[in-house]
UniProtKB/TrEMBL annotation:
Domain L-fucose isomerase N-terminal-1, chain residue ranges per copy: 7-174
Protein name as catalogued: L-fucose isomerase
Location in the cell: Cytoplasm
Physiological role: Converts the aldose L-fucose into the corresponding ketose L-fuculose.
The organism of origin for this protein: Chitinophaga parva
UniProt lineage: Bacteria, Pseudomonadati, Bacteroidota, Chitinophagia, Chitinophagales
Encoding gene, per UniProt annotation: fucI
Pathway listed: Carbohydrate degradation; L-fucose degradation; L-lactaldehyde and glycerone phosphate from L-fucose: step 1/3
Gene3D superfamilies for this protein: 3.40.50.1070, L-fucose Isomerase, Chain A, domain 2, L-fucose/L-arabinose isomerase, C-terminal
Length: 590
């Protein structure tokens, strides 16, 4: 996406419309309130390309329905996708409220005593609830003096949290999910449900058969100069590991070299299928040059492709990473095995954090007793209650090595903060093994690394349930380090050619988070998307905007922020209220 296509945040300065002394006394302070929020957003929020988020402030304060309509037209003409109303005073609620059906919306009612901004907030939130247009309510805990331009910390947190989730909603609208191939090994998540994408995310669905990859390889429908550059970079930076396949099943050196060329070409082709490539038009392929406007894609791979051609681990891993032969750049979102539901889970995390996402199997729960029996080591520290082995064939982002750093600690971070030395470290700690030919008869290469321990991470997964619809589950926790001999013993019981993340969810002692085993037992599918940081509260806010209930999470109650109308569905059992609200309002895009 180019910057000109990014949605903007619209800020509506709402005012008491009574002229003759009241409105005039509030014009400057109301407009300044809007400007201060715009400055907050442009300072702290970014688009996926790293540029500051752009805001559009209403041309005038909004004191009545005429000015509300004028502002709506202004926002429509300026690409607004998220709406925030701000006011320090009482205003005429239903005359001034935002009525757009798709824009995520919130109201900041200033907590002051000179003018009743809180009264407007309450009245207008009631109007939003009555009209079926849920909005977030933002109200500072402490009273401020009228004209105080400081934005309190608690208000800042809610303003930013709303805007991040709102921008994620707006960025998805009108984009595509591209399925390269169809169903992988009977995985339900790869049975792409276009109704879900259209009604809940506002996204289109695009499909191409995997034969299109072969066509582009054979007819050289890729940038041949870039291919040579990419192949040279791969040979220099992607170290090949030992071949652990039985000798009789190993490919020859010439075949392995050919596989390297094929997987590099696949990487170029997957990217071009998603976003297009102007270089193809110069070669006479104008249609192919346009791409499929895809914000997210998935590759079927197994088995029809991988039974006779190199697997997709290399292209998936490189695209999901924040760097390649062209340098440091934003990661692409590419789902292994065309698991669209896990792909969307990755997309949620990416749009909220702008960091690369780890795609993994939620493969094995290792209890302390089982670990001691197999390795002789008794887990301790964070791992004392056991841990979950996150591992899949080598398609996880290389950012997941944990070799990016901040203040000496392992992190995953937006591409614009990554240094060249960190990229080299990620590559140096990744080995590309010839693919396990029991799984991948056509060969290829799988990445192998071990995620460094000590990183706060959040795993999430979106599932579709017949009769209910989509539900989201969230588990905040930490990556952990294991002693080398313990890691090797446990890892090699699965596959030593794949990347591993050892994960311990944060426990609450009750429900699905009673212990680590119960988290594993309640996980709704075989895959999970892992994002850096404890961002479960951000995911809950986004899910509410999309009307997707959260069926499992370990986020503290005080961190949860949903539209004000959710309280009308019950306040003593928030999870049940979330289900009832999402069911009542239905998908965002009807």
């Amino acid at each position: 996406m180019s910057n000109t296509q990014y949605p903007r945040i619209g800020i509506r300065p709402v005012i008491d419309g009574r002229l003759g002394g009241v409105r005039e006394s509030l014009e400057a302070v109301t407009m300044q309130m809007a400007k201060n929020v715009a400055a907050l957003y442009t300072t702290h929020l970014r688009y996926p390309d790293g540029s500051p988020v752009q805001c559009v402030i209403g041309d005038t304060c909004i004191g009545g329905v005429k000015e509300a309509a004028d502002c709506a037209r202004q926002f429509e003409n300026n690409g607004v996708g998220v709406s925030l109303s701000v006011t320090p005073c009482w205003c005429y609620g239903m005359e001034t409220m935002d009525m757009h059906p798709y824009w995520p919306k919130a109201i900041w009612g200033f907590n002051g005593t000179e003018r009743p901004g809180a009264v407007y907030l309450a009245a207008t939130l009631a109007a939003h609830a009555q009209m079926g247009l849920p909005a977030f309510g933002i109200y500072g805990r402490d009273v401020q003096d009228l004209g105080d331009e400081a934005i309190p910390e608690d208000v800042t947190d809610k303003l930013l949290r709303f805007a991040r989730a709102g921008m994620a909603v707006a960025l998805m609208r009108g984009k595509s999910y591209l399925a390269i191939g169809t169903v992988s090994m009977g995985i339900a998540g790869s049975m792409v449900n276009s109704d879900f994408f259209q009604r809940y995310l506002g996204m289109r669905n695009e499909w191409v058969d995997t034969s299109e990859i072969l066509r582009r390889i054979e007819k050289k429908i890729y940038d041949e100069n870039e291919f040579e550059k990419a192949l040279a970079w791969t040979r220099s930076n992607c170290k090949e590991g030992s071949d652990f396949n039985p000798v009789e099943k190993q490919f020859s050196r010439a075949e392995k070299d050919d596989h390297w060329e094929t997987v590099v070409k696949m990487t170029l082709i997957f990217r071009d299928l998603m976003t297009g490539n102007a270089a193809l038009k110069a070669k006479g392929f104008g249609e192919e040059a346009m791409g499929h406007n895809a914000l997210l894609a998935g590759f079927q791979g197994q088995r029809q492709w991988t039974d006779f051609l190199p697997n997709g681990d290399f292209p998936e891993a490189i695209l999901n990473s924040s760097f390649d032969w062209n340098g440091i750049r934003a990661p692409y979102m590419m789902a292994t095995e065309n698991d669209a539901m896990n792909g969307v889970s990755m997309l949620f995390g990416y749009l909220l954090t702008h960091t690369a996402q780890i795609f993994a199997d939620v493969r094995t729960y290792w209890s302390p007793d089982a670990v001691q029996r197999v390795t002789g080591w008794q887990p301790d520290g964070t791992a004392a209650g056991g841990f979950i082995h996150l591992i899949n064939s080598g398609s996880a982002t290389l950012d997941g090595t944990g070799r990016l750093q901040q203040d000496g600690q392992p992190v995953m971070k937006p591409f614009w903060e990554i240094q060249e030395a960190e990229v080299k470290d990620c590559l140096a700690h990744t080995t590309w093994y010839p693919a396990n030919n029991g799984y991948f008869r056509g060969g290829g290469y799988s990445s192998q690394f071990v995620t460094r321990g000590g990183m706060p991470v959040t795993m999430c997964r979106l599932n579709l349930v017949k009769g209910l619809g989509p539900v989201l589950q969230i588990a905040e926790g930490h990556t952990v380090d294991l002693p080398d001999h313990v890691h090797r013993t446990l890892d090699e019981r699965t596959d030593r050619t794949w990347p591993t993340t050892w994960f311990v969810p944060r426990l609450t002692g009750q429900g699905a988070f009673r212990d680590v085993y119960t988290v594993m037992a309640n996980w709704g599918a075989n895959h999970g998307a892992i994002s850096y940081g404890h961002v479960g509260h951000e995911l809950i806010t986004l899910a509410a905007l999309l009307r997707i209930p959260v069926n499992m999470h370990n986020v503290e109650e005080q961190r949860i922020f949903r539209p004000a109308a959710w309280a009308s569905f019950g306040t003593t059992a928030a999870e049940g209220a979330d289900y009832r609200a999402c069911d009542t309002y239905g998908p965002l895009y009807k």
